[in-house]
Amino acid sequence: MTRYLFRRLLLTIPVLFFVSLIVFSLIALIPGDPARIMLGEEASREALDVLRRQMGLDRPILVRYLLWMGRVVQGDLGRSVRDGRSVALTLAQKIPVTAELAVTSLLVAWAIAIPAGALAAWKRRSVVDYAATTVSLAGISIPNFWLGIMLIYLLAVNWRWLPPSGYVEPWVDLGRNLKLMIMPSIVLGTALAALVMRLLRSSMIEVLGSDYIRTARAKGLADTTLVVRHAMKNAMIPVATIMGLQLGGLLGGAVITETIFAVPGVGRLAVESILTRDYPMVQGVVLFAAVAVVAVNLIVDMAYALLDPRIRLEERA
Amino acid sequence: MKRVVVLVLIAILALTAATVAAPRRGGTLRVGLNADPPQMDPHQSTAAVDRQVFQNLYDKLVDVNQNLEIVPMLAVSWTISQDGKVYTFRLRPNVVFHDGTPFNAEAVKYNFERMLDREFASPRRSEVNLVTNVEAVDPTTVRITLEKSFSPFLSVLSDRAGMMVSPTAARARGKAGFSQQPVGTGPYRFVEKRPQERIVLEKFDRHWDQSAGNAQQIVYRPFTDENARLANLRAGELDIIDQVAAAEVPRLRTDATLKLAERAGLGWQGMWIQVQSGVFSNKALRQALNAAIDRRTLVRVVFGETADPANGPFPPGMFTYNIQANSRIPERNLDLARQKLREGGQPNGFAFTLKVTPGRVPSQVAQVIQSMAGEVGIRVNIEIVEFGALLSQLDAHRFEAALLGWSGRPDPDGNIYGFFVTGGGLNNSAYANSRVDSLLDAARILTTADQRRRAYTDVMNALNDDLPYLFLWWPKDYKVYSPKLQGFVHISDGMMRFRHVWLNP
Questions:
Q1: Is A83 in Cβ contact with B40 (below 8 Å)?
Q2: What is the CATH number of the domain that holds B498?
Q3: Which one of A38, A165, A276 has the shortest CB-CB distance to B228?
Q4: What range defines the domain where residue B115 resides?
C-alpha cells in the first residue's frame, strides 16, 4: 500500500508539470495585453513599455515560464499583477469557501441520488423508477443560472426564508454561513445528483441480477437488507469514481453558481483573473485545481480497496 | 396680519423641514456594486468601479456638483493666471490623513511627483503630463505650473488625479503595499478588502468636515449578476445598488418599496470605424452605413427608456450638449444610403465585420444594426471578441468596425480630445484631420463656455461628415435604493458620494 501510494504521488509530478506548461502557454497565446488592461485605454505607449518591463513581459515566454517554475518549486506562487496581493494568500482565502460549497453540494447530491437510485433499481419499471428518472433528467437539464435566480426570487425575495446571496465565514456566524450555503448547494447538488442517480440505478440493476444476490434472496433475506447491506456496496464502486471526479471538479470552482450567489470562491477568482490577464493568479488557481483533481482521484483509488477487497492496490511480486 | 401669518407658516415649515432632514448618525451602509474594484490606489487605478469606493475613502482637490460645476474640496479657493498656465490653490487648513500625516502643500507636491514618475507608471500620468512644476509656497498654498494653457485642468482634478494619498504611507508601503492598505483624507478610512467578497470602510473621526460620515461603516459588495444585485436589495440585504437592467426600470418606477434615481450619464456609446485602410477608408461608404441606421428605433428596441439616441460625444447635462451637430438625431434615410453606396462605387452594397464584446446588450445592438444595414445591401458579420482582446485589436487598428464606448468625463474635453486628435491614445479609428486637431487644441486654451462651444461646433460638423465614429446612444445612469437611505444626491458621473447620506431605522 505504501509503495503504491509513493508511486502514485511520484506520478503526479509530471502531470502537474504538463498542466502548468499547457496553461502557461495557453494564457500567453490569448490575445490581449495585460499591461494595456491594467493601465486602461488612455495609457501612453511609453507607460505601457515601462509596465511591460516591470511585469517581465518583454522577456521570451520560455524564460518567463522557467522563472515562474523556479519560484513555484521553492513554494512561492508570486503576486497578483492586478493588485499586488500574494497569490498563495488569496488562494488560502478562497479554497475553504469553495471546499465548503463542494462538500455541501455533494451532500445534497448524495442525499437525493443514493436513495433515489437504489429505489429506482429495486422497483424497476415502476412509477417510482419513472419518477426518479424524470426528476433526475430535469436536474441535468435545468440550467444553473435559471434555477439559481428562481430560488433567490422564491426563497429569499418572496418568502424571505433565506438570505439571497453572499458569504460569511463559519467562525463569524455559523448559522448564517449554513443558511447562505443552502441555495448554491441545491443548485449544484441537483445537477450532480442526476448523474449519480442514473449510474447507481444501472449499476444496482446489474448487481441485483448477480448470483450472490439470488443466493441471498433464496436464503430468505428481507429485500431491504438485501439492497442496503449486500447490493449497495458493490453497486457503489463505479459510482465512487464519478463522485471523485465530481468532487475534483467542484474544487476547481463553480463559476456560474458562485457568481449568482456572490460566493467568493475559486471559480470567480479564476474568471476574474483570466479576464484581467492576471497570469500569476491564473497559474495559481489552475495549479490548485490540478492538484485537487489528482489528489481526489488518488483517494478514490484507495477507497476502491475498502469497497471491494478483491481490488488489490499492490502489484504482485 | 397676512404677513405675520405667512412668516409663521414659513417658520413652521422650516422647523418641520429641519426635523425631517436632521441626519441620523450610525449604522452600516451596504452597497451593491456591479463589479469587484481591483485597485485601492487612485494613482494605479484603471477600472471605473474603483472610483465608487474612492469617493468616500479619499478627498479630491476639487469636486463637481450636480450641475457639473467645480466646487471646493481640499482646495478652498484658487486663482488662474492670465495666460492660463499657473494655478494657485489655497488649501484647507487642519486636514489630516487617516494615518495622522498632515495634509499640506508638500503632500500635494508629493502626489503630483508620484503620478508623474515614469517608473511608477501611473495611468494618471497622461492626465497630468502638462504639469511642469509644483511648488509648495507655504503650507496652505500650492502653485502648479502647466506647459501650456489647459482649461479642463480643474475638471481633471475632480477625479482620480485630484485624490490625495498620504505621502508617509505611500513611501513606506511601496506600490503594491499601498494598494493593500490605502490611506487618504476622506470621511471614511480603509478597514479591509477581500477580493470578490467585500470592501469595508469605517468612519474617520478626525475628518475636516464634521458633518460628513453619518453612517458608521460602509460595506461594498460586488454582484456581477444584475438580477442577483437587485434581489439582494429587495431582500433588504443592501441599501443601495449601482446600475440596473433596462427591463427592470419601468417596474421600479412604480415600486413603492424602493426608490429609483435616474440621471443623464456622461458617457457615449456607438461604433468605431477604422478609416485608415480597408472598405471604410472610403468615406461615402461610412456615410451610407450611417444613413441606414435608425438611432431612435435602435434605442427603443434595445434600451427602452434607459438611454437617449445620440449623435455626438456630449450627452444631455454637459454644457456643450446643445451644439446642433451633437444633439440633433439624424433621420434614417435609405435613399441617401443608396446614393452614397453608388458614390462609393458599391451600388449593390458591401460586407464588413463588426466586432462586439460578449454580453446581451452589445449582441442585440449589433443585430439591430445588421438588419437595418441589410436593407440597403450592407452585410454585417458580427464577431464576438473578449474585452481585453478587443482593446488590443483597436489599439493596433486591426478591425473594420467595433462597438465600444466611453464612460465619460465631466468636462467635454475628456469626451472628445484623445479620441479624434491625430495620433491620440484613444483614436482607434486612426482618424487624422488637421483642422479638427487645431480646433480641439483651441478648445483646450479657450476659457469661456461660449468660445469652447463654438470650437466644438466646428469639430462636430467635421466629425459628422467624416464619421470616424458613429455615436448611437447616451446611456442614462441609475441607482436603486431603499427608502431608509436619506440625503442621497445623484450626480451624472454616476459616483456614489456617501459623505452626507444617512440611514433611517
A1: yes
A2: 3.40.190.10
A3: A165
A4: 59-171
Could you tell me if B146 and B236 lie in one domain?
Answer: no
CATH code (residue B90): 3.90.76.10
Tell whether B339 is covered by a domain: yes
Asked if B231 and A153 come within 8 Å (Cβ–Cβ), the reply is: yes
Residues B289 and B344 in one domain: yes
Decide if B45 is inside a domain: no
Q: Give the pLDDT of chain B (505 residues) as one tens digit per residue.
A: 555 555 555 555 555 544 456 789 999 999 999 988 888 999 988 888 999 999 999 999 999 999 899 999 999 999 999 999 999 999 999 999 999 999 999 999 999 999 999 888 888 988 898 999 999 999 999 999 999 999 999 999 999 999 999 999 999 999 888 988 999 999 999 999 988 889 999 999 999 999 999 999 999 999 888 888 998 999 889 999 999 988 899 999 999 999 999 999 999 999 999 999 999 999 999 999 999 999 999 999 999 999 999 999 999 989 999 999 999 999 999 999 999 999 999 999 999 999 999 888 999 999 999 999 999 999 999 999 888 788 888 988 999 999 999 989 989 999 999 999 998 888 999 999 999 999 999 999 988 889 999 999 999 999 999 999 999 999 999 999 999 999 999 999 999 999 999 999 8
Q: Does residue B46 fall inside a structural domain?
A: no
Residue given cell 507636491 in the structure block: B109
User: Chain B 371-430, CB below 8 Å of chain A: which residues?
Assistant: 386-389, 391-393, 395, 418, 425-426
- Taking each helix axis as running N to C, give the angle between helix B105-116 and helix B167-180, from 0 to 180 degrees, rounded to the nearest 10: 50
* Angle ∠(A155,A161,A162) on CA atoms, nearest 5: 80
| B237 touches A at CB < 8 Å | yes
Domain count along chain B: 3
Query: pTM above 0.95?
Result: no
Return all residues near A180 (Cβ < 8 A) that are at least 6 apart: A162, A163, A165, A166, A167, A168, A261, A263
Q: Say if the Cβ atoms of B195 and A31 lie within 8 Å.
A: no
CB of B75 closer than 8 Å to CB of B81: no
CATH for B320: 3.10.105.10
Q: Which of B26, B59, B57, B58 is nearest to B199 (CA)?
A: B57
Helix axes A87-122, A232-251, angle to 10 degrees: 150
Give the Cβ contact number of residue B89 at 10 Å: 24
Q: Assess B183–A contact: CB distance below 8 Å, yes or no.
A: no
- Residue B293 · residue B369 · CB < 8 Å: yes
